[in-house]
Write a structure and sequence with these properties.
The structure holds three protein chains of three kinds. Chain A contains 17 helices and five strands. Chain A is α/β, with parallel strands linked by helices. Chain A has two domains: about 240 residues, no CATH class; about 120 residues, D-Maltodextrin-Binding Protein, domain 2 (3-Layer(aba) Sandwich). A four-stranded mixed sheet of chain A has the order 2-1-3-4. In chain A, helix 6 runs antiparallel to helix 7 and helix 8 crosses helix 16. The two termini of chain A are about 25 Å apart. Chain B has two domains: about 220 residues, Rossmann fold (3-Layer(aba) Sandwich), CATH 3.40.50; about 70 residues, 2-Layer Sandwich (Alpha-Beta Plaits). Chain B has eleven helices and 14 strands. In chain B, helix 4 packs antiparallel against helix 5 and helix 5 packs parallel to helix 6. Chain B starts with a strand and ends in a 6-residue tail after the last helix. By secondary structure, chain C is mainly α. Chain C folds into two domains: about 240 residues, no CATH class; about 120 residues, abc type-2 transporter like fold. In chain C, helix 7 packs antiparallel against helix 9. Chain C is elongated and about 105 Å long. The chains are: A alpha/beta, B alpha/beta, C mainly alpha. Strand 5 of chain A pairs parallel with strand 4 of chain C, so a sheet runs across the interface.
Chain lengths: ~375, ~300, ~375
C-alpha cells in the first residue's frame, strides 16, 4: 500500500509542470540572476577614482606640504600602475564651480585661510575627500605639537608620519569571512523551501473530498484517509527535497556559493526547511477552501513576502525587520531557514543553528497537528 | 437488501436537502434514482457513502451500518462520480491502476483487473494517454473504469452521462447492463428519464429531498390517471365535432390548433380505437396520426404538478 | 466601443486580485524606500553605525580615549562582554562592528612594540566598516607619533594632545545649485520598477487571457468587428489601465516628495515613469498574446519582474553591477528607466547637456514600446490566421 501510493504520488508530483517550475526552475533562474548581479560585488575594482578639483590660487601654490600629500594619493603618486584615490584637476574658482554644477567632480578644495571643501551633496565620495583633508590637518597639528615640545624629533618624526601602521586585526567568530551577499542566496533557498507549500496544498486537495473529486474517491477507498495522506506527504517531501538538493548543488557547484564546511548539517537544514514548507502548504490547503489557482497565488505571495522580509531582495530588510519587530526573527520561517544556513557558514559552534532548526521543527509539528485535526474529521458538512 | 436508508434528514442551513428520505435497493437491481436538478440525488448518494454528515436517519449497506471507517463495506462499493475524478498527471492505465490499488494490494490480481477494466470501457488504444488528451466521452469512460476496476458488488453511478456524446452514452448504458448481468447491483442517478426508462429495473422518483414514487417503469406509469396522447392531422374540424370527441368515453382533454388535433385520454383500454371509430363513422379524413404512451415525465407532472425538466 | 466596455467589466471582476497585487507590491516598494533609501555613508553627521566597544585592558587610559573618540563617530551600544552576546549582537545586527581592546594593549603600545593589536569584528566589508578601521588607525597612529617622538609623555597629556589634534576639521561648504532631488524620491522611483512590472503584467495578461480564450476568440473573430479595431480597443483598455496604475503610483510619489512634488525634477520623474508604464504595457501585451494559462502567467510575472530588476539596477545599483552586466542590461528597458532616474536625481541645473541624456533614455524606452508592440501585433495577426 505504502509503495503503491508513494510511487504513484511521486509520478503525479514530478509530472506537474507548473509546480516543478515553481520549486525547481524558478529558484534556479533567480539564483542565476543573483549570480549575474553579484558577480561584480566582491571583485576589487569597484572603487573608481574620485574626481576632484583644486582651486589653483596663491595659498595653494605656497603650500608645498599639501601639494606633496595630494600627489601621493593621485595616479602619479602610485608605484606600479595602481590607481590613486583622486583624479585631480587644477582650475580657477569659477571653473571648479562649473564642474561641480555639472556633476563632473564630486567636490573641490579651496584654500582660503586653510583648506575648505566645497561640495553639493554628501555621500561616501565626499566623505573620503573630507577624511583626506581632516587627516592632513590633524597630522599637521600633531607635528606642530611635537616639534614645539621636542624639536629634535623632526627627521624621525617625518618617517613615522609616512609609516603606514595598522593597529587592527580582524577576528571573526570563525574562519569564515563575514559575507552578506551569501544571505541573498540563503534567502533564495528559504524561498524554495517555502515553495514546498505547493506540494502540501496539492496533497491536501488530493485527499479531501470537499476540495476535489479525486479526494472524494480517496475517501471512499477502504483505507484510512490519514494513512493515505501520510504516504502521499512522504512522496511530496521526497520530491520537494530532491528539488532543493538540485538547487543547492547548482548554487554550490556553478555559482560557487559557500555553504560552510559541514555538508551533513547543510543537508539537515534542507530537510527541515523543506518539511516546513510542505507543512505550511498542507496547513493552508486544509484551512482555505478555494480553487488551486487562488491558493497558488496566495502561496506565491506569502512565500515571496516572507522571503522579502528575510532579505531576498535587499539584505538590510532582514535586520530592519529584526529591529522593528524582534519576534519576527523567530517566527518568519524564511528568516529561520536563512539564519540556519548563515550560522552554519559563519559560526564554528552549532547553538544558533540548532535553535533555528528546533524552531522550524516546532512549527512543522504544530502545522501538522492542526492539519491532523482538520483531516481527522471524516464526514463533511457539505461537498 | 443491499442498501437500506431510513428517514434520512440532511439540512444545509435553512435548506432541507433530504426530507425523511427512504430507500431500499435489492441485490441484482439496476436501481434508478430520477429527479430534477437539485432534488437531492447527489446529496443522498454522498450520505449513503458516508461522505456527508446528516442530521437524522440510518443507513445500512450490505446489512451493516455505513460509516467512514467501514472498510469492509467500502471495499465492495464502486463509485462513479458526477465530476470526473482522475489525476491529470497519470496516464489512463496508471489512473485505473492507482485507484484499483486502493482496494486490491495483490499486484498480479490488480494487473489483470486493470486490463479487464480497460477492455470493458474500450480504452485499449488510449492506455498511455493523459486525461487531458481525452475527449469528454472517453474521459467519462476512464472515470467509470477507475470506479469499477476492483469489481465491486455495489456500483453507484451519479449522473455518469452528463455532457457525453450519444455514442459514448450508449456504450456507457450498455456497460452498466453488462456489469449488472455479471452480478453487480447498480444505483443509477440521472435526470434523463429516457436513460432511466431504458436500463433501470426499478425506479424511484425524487423531488425536494423526498422519494415521491417507487416501482418498475410500468408500475409507475400505472399509478397515474393519464393514458395515451393521440395526435392527428385533420383539416377543417368544426367546433361541434370537437365537442363530440370531447364527449367520448375516457377522453380528458381535446385541443385543436393549426389543423392538429391533440386528444388526451385517461388510462383505459382501446382509447385509440374509440377515437379512430369516431373518425370513420363521421367520415373525417385524417393525415398523420400517432399515439404516445405516458412517460415518466407525465408521472412526475401528475404527482408534482411540474415538468421533470425545465 | 463594445470591446473597450467589456474590458472594464472584466477588470472589475478581476479587481480584488489586482488590488491585492497593487497593495502588496506598493507596500513592498514603500518599505524599501523608507528603509533601503538611506545610503550608509558616514560623515557629515549622517547615519552613525552601531558598534560595540569591549575593553579587556587593565591600564585603560588609551582605551578610554579611543572609546571617547569613536563615540563621536558611531553609536556605542553596550553589550555584555561575553562571546555569546557579542555573536548574537552581530548576528541580529544590533551592532555592525565590534572593537575589542585586548589585555596588555596599552603596555605594548607605550613600549613602542605595537605587537598587540586591537581586535575588530565586522558583519561585512562595507564602507562603514572600512571607515571605522580608518578612524581607529588614525587615533592610534596619532597617539603613536607622540609616544615615539616624545618619550616619557604621560597618559593624560597624550590623550589631551590627540584629542585636540583630532578635533581639527576641514570646513565644508555645501552649495545647492538649484533644487536637488531627495534621494528617497529617487529610491522610490527606482524600486517602483518591480511593482510596476508585476502589477501591469498581471493586470493586462489577466484580461488578455480572457480575450484569448480559444472559444471566445473564435466568436470575436467571427464578428463583423475589424480585427484592427478590436485590437486597438483592447490596447486602449490596457492603456487606460496602465495610466490608472501610473496615477496611483505618482500619487504615492507626491506624498514622498512632499513640497518638491511639482518641481521640474519631479515632473521628469513622472514622465519617465509613464514611459516605463508603457514599456510594461507593451511587454505584457506581447506576452499576453502568447500565453494560455494562469499558471504560466504567474511564473512569467515573477521571473520577468525579478530578472529585469536585478539586471537593470533596481535592487543592486548600476554602479555596482560591473561593465558586462550593464552592457547586457542596456538591451533591457529597465536599464534605461533606472539610468534616467539616476540622472534626474543628480540633475541640478537644467541645460541641454544635462537634460539630453535623460530625454535619450526616455526615447529609448519609447523605442522599446514601439518594437514590442510591433512584434505583438504581428503575433496577434499570425495567431488569427492559424486559428
Amino acid at each position: 500500500m505504502f509503495l503503491h501510493i508513494f510511487t504513484n504520488r511521486c509520478k503525479c508530483l514530478v509530472r506537474d509542470k507548473v509546480l516543478m517550475f515553481w520549486t525547481l526552475m524558478f529558484p534556479i533562474v533567480l539564483a542565476s540572476l543573483f549570480g549575474l548581479a553579484f558577480s561584480n560585488l566582491s571583485s576589487e575594482d569597484k572603487f573608481s577614482e574620485i574626481n576632484i578639483a583644486v582651486v589653483d590660487n596663491n595659498e595653494y601654490q605656497s603650500n608645498q606640504a599639501f601639494q606633496s600629500a595630494l600627489s601621493a594619493v593621485t595616479d602619479a603618486g602610485q608605484s606600479s600602475g595602481e590607481k590613486g584615490l583622486f583624479n585631480v584637476i587644477l582650475s580657477t574658482h569659477e571653473q571648479a564651480d562649473e564642474l561641480l554644477k555639472n556633476n563632473k567632480i564630486e567636490g573641490y578644495i579651496l584654500f582660503d585661510g586653510g583648506a575648505n571643501l566645497v561640495i553639493k551633496e554628501s555621500g561616501i565620495n565626499q566623505t573620503i575627500i573630507k577624511t583626506f583633508l581632516d587627516d592632513y590637518a590633524q597630522i599637521g597639528s600633531a607635528i606642530t605639537n611635537i616639534v614645539r615640545q621636542n624639536p629634535t624629533a623632526f627627521p624621525s618624526l617625518m618617517e613615522d608620519v609616512m609609516a603606514d601602521k595598522n593597529y587592527l586585526k580582524e577576528v571573526s567568530p570563525s574562519n569564515a569571512e563575514p559575507n552578506t551577499t551569501l544571505n541573498y542566496y540563503y534567502a533564495l533557498v528559504a524561498m524554495a523551501c517555502l515553495f514546498g507549500s505547493f506540494w502540501g496544498v496539492k496533497e491536501i486537495s488530493a485527499v479531501q473530498a470537499d476540495l476535489s473529486p479525486q479526494g472524494a474517491r480517496v475517501n471512499l477507498a477502504p483505507a484510512h484517509k490519514l494513512k493515505i495522506f501520510g504516504y502521499s506527504l512522504c512522496a511530496a517531501a521526497v520530491v520537494h527535497l530532491f528539488t532543493i538538493f538540485i538547487l543547492i548543488a547548482y548554487l554550490s557547484l556553478f555559482l560557487k556559493v559557500d555553504f560552510g564546511r559541514d555538508l551533513l548539517y547543510v543537508l539537515l537544514a534542507c530537510v527541515v526547511g523543506s518539511m516546513m514548507g510542505v507543512s505550511m502548504g498542507a496547513l493552508i490547503g486544509a484551512l482555505i477552501k478555494k480553487d488551486e489557482i487562488v491558493k497558488i497565488a496566495v502561496l506565491v505571495s506569502v512565500s515571496m513576502i516572507l522571503s522579502f522580509l528575510a532579505g531576498l531582495m535587499m539584505v538590510d530588510m532582514k535586520y530592519i525587520v529584526t529591529h522593528a519587530i524582534p519576534v519576527m526573527a523567530y517566527i518568519n520561517p524564511a528568516n529561520l531557514i536563512t539564519d540556519a544556513f548563515y550560522s552554519l557558514y559563519y559560526f564554528d559552534t552549532y547553538n544558533r543553528f540548532f535553535t533555528n532548526i528546533g524552531l522550524l521543527l516546532g512549527f512543522t509539528v504544530v502545522f501538522y497537528l492542526i492539519v491532523y485535526f482538520v483531516l481527522r474529521r471524516q464526514r463533511y458538512a457539505s461537498l | 437488501m443491499v442498501v437500506k436508508v431510513n428517514n434520512l434528514v440532511k439540512r444545509y442551513g435553512d435548506l432541507i436537502a433530504l426530507d425523511h428520505f427512504n430507500l431500499q435497493v435489492n441485490e441484482g437491481e439496476i436501481f434508478g434514482l430520477l429527479g430534477p436538478n437539485g432534488s437531492g440525488k447527489t446529496t443522498a448518494i454522498n450520505c449513503i457513502l458516508a461522505l456527508l454528515k446528516y442530521d437524522k436517519g440510518t443507513i445500512e449497506v450490505f446489512g451493516q451500518a455505513m460509516a467512514p471507517d467501514a472498510y469492509n463495506i467500502k471495499r465492495e462499493i464502486g463509485i462513479i462520480m458526477q465530476n470526473v475524478a482522475v489525476f491529470n498527471e497519470l496516464t489512463v492505465q496508471e489512473n485505473i491502476n492507482y485507484f484499483c490499488g486502493l482496494y486490491i494490494s495483490d499486484k498480479k490480481k490488480r494487473a489483470s483487473l486493470v486490463e479487464e477494466a480497460i477492455e470493458f470501457v474500450g480504452l485499449n488504444d488510449f492506455r498511455k494517454f493523459y486525461p487531458r488528451k481525452l475527449s469528454g466521452g472517453l474521459l467519462r469512460r476512464l472515470n467509470i473504469a477507475c470506479g469499477i476496476a476492483h469489481q465491486p458488488k455495489l456500483i453507484i453511478m451519479d449522473e455518469p452521462t452528463v455532457a457525453v456524446d450519444p455514442q459514448s452514452r450508449n456504450s456507457i448504458l450498455e456497460g452498466i447492463q453488462k456489469l449488472n448481468r455479471q452480478g453487480a447491483t447498480v444505483i443509477y442517478t440521472s435526470h434523463y428519464m429516457e436513460e432511466v426508462e431504458q436500463i433501470c429495473t426499478r425506479i424511484a422518483i425524487m423531488d425536494r429531498g423526498k422519494i415521491i414514487a417507487t416501482g418498475t417503469n410500468d408500475e409507475l406509469k400505472s399509478m397515474i390517471k393519464a393514458g395515451e396522447k393521440i395526435t392527428a392531422e385533420i383539416f377543417g374540424l368544426d367546433s361541434l365535432q370537437i365537442q363530440n370527441i370531447k364527449n367520448l368515453p375516457h377522453i380528458s382533454s381535446v385541443e385543436y390548433d393549426e389543423n392538429m388535433l391533440v386528444v388526451k385520454s385517461e388510462r383505459g383500454k382501446n382509447n385509440l380505437a374509440i377515437v379512430l371509430d369516431y373518425f370513420r363513422v363521421h367520415n373525417i379524413p385524417y393525415g398523420k396520426i400517432y399515439c404516445e404512451l405516458p412517460t415518466l415525465n407525465d408521472v412526475f407532472l401528475e404527482i408534482t404538478g411540474k415538468q421533470l425538466r425545465d | 466601443m463594445q470591446v473597450y466596455k467589456a474590458y472594464f467589466k472584466i477588470i472589475k471582476q478581476n479587481l480584488p486580485a489586482i488590488s491585492i497585487y497593487v497593495c502588496i507590491f506598493l507596500f513592498i516598494t514603500v518599505m524599501l524606500t523608507y528603509f533601503g533609501g538611506e545610503k550608509t555613508s558616514p560623515g557629515f553627521s549622517k547615519t552613525k553605525i552601531n558598534i560595540a566597544f569591549v575593553n579587556d585592558d587593565d591600564s585603560a587610559a588609551l582605551a578610554v580615549g579611543l572609546r571617547d573618540y569613536l563615540s563621536t563617530n558611531a553609536n556605542i551600544i553596550s553589550i555584555q562582554n561575553n562571546e555569546e552576546s557579542l555573536q548574537d549582537a552581530l548576528f541580529f545586527r544590533k551592532v555592525e562592528y565590534i572593537v575589542k581592546v585586548p589585555a596588555g594593549f596599552s603596555q605594548s603600545f607605550f613600549s613602542g612594540e605595537h605587537d598587540v593589536r586591537i581586535e575588530k569584528t565586522s558583519v561585512q566589508k562595507s564602507q562603514s566598516s572600512v571607515y571605522m578601521d580608518f578612524l581607529i588607525n588614525r587615533y592610534l597612529s596619532t597617539a603613536g607619533l607622540y609616544t615615539q617622538n616624545m618619550p616619557g609623555i604621560s597618559g593624560s597629556q597624550l590623550l589631551g594632545f590627540v584629542k585636540s589634534d583630532l578635533e581639527q576639521q576641514t570646513s565644508v561648504q555645501v552649495k545647492a545649485y538649484g533644487k536637488k532631488t531627495d534621494s528617497r524620491v529617487a529610491t522610490y522611483y527606482t524600486y517602483l520598477v518591480y511593482a510596476m512590472i508585476v502589477i501591469i503584467f498581471l493586470g493586462v495578461t489577466s484580461i488578455m487571457l480572457v480575450f484569448n480564450d480559444p472559444d471566445l476568440r473564435k466568436r470575436n473573430l467571427g464578428s463583423p468587428l475589424k480585427s484592427l479595431s478590436m485590437n486597438m480597443q483592447l490596447f486602449l483598455g490596457n492603456m487606460s489601465f496602465a495610466v490608472v496604475v501610473w496615477i496611483i503610483m505618482v500619487t504615492i510619489g507626491f506624498l514622498i516628495s512632499g513640497k518638491a512634488a511639482f518641481d521640474i525634477n519631479s515632473v521628469m520623474m513622472y514622465i519617465n515613469l509613464l514611459c516605463f508604464a508603457f514599456v510594461c504595457l507593451s511587454l505584457s501585451f506581447l506576452i499576453g498574446n502568447l500565453i494560455r494559462s494562469r499558471e504560466v502567467q504567474q511564473g512569467i510575472a515573477n521571473v520577468l519582474s525579478l530578472g529585469l530588476c536585478f539586471i537593470g539596477g533596481v535592487f543592486v545599483p548600476q554602479q555596482l553591477l560591473g561593465k558586462t552586466v550593464n552592457f547586457i542590461a542596456s538591451f533591457t528597458p529597465t536599464y534605461w528607466y533606472v539610468k534616467a532616474v539616476n540622472d534626474i536625481e543628480k540633475l541640478a541645473l537644467i541645460n541641454i547637456t544635462n537634460v539630453t541624456p535623460i530625454i535619450n533614455s526616455m526615447l529609448i524606452q519609447l523605442g522599446f514600446v514601439v518594437a514590442l508592440l510591433a512584434v505583438a501585433l504581428v503575433i496577434a495577426k499570425q495567431k488569427r490566421v492559424s486559428a
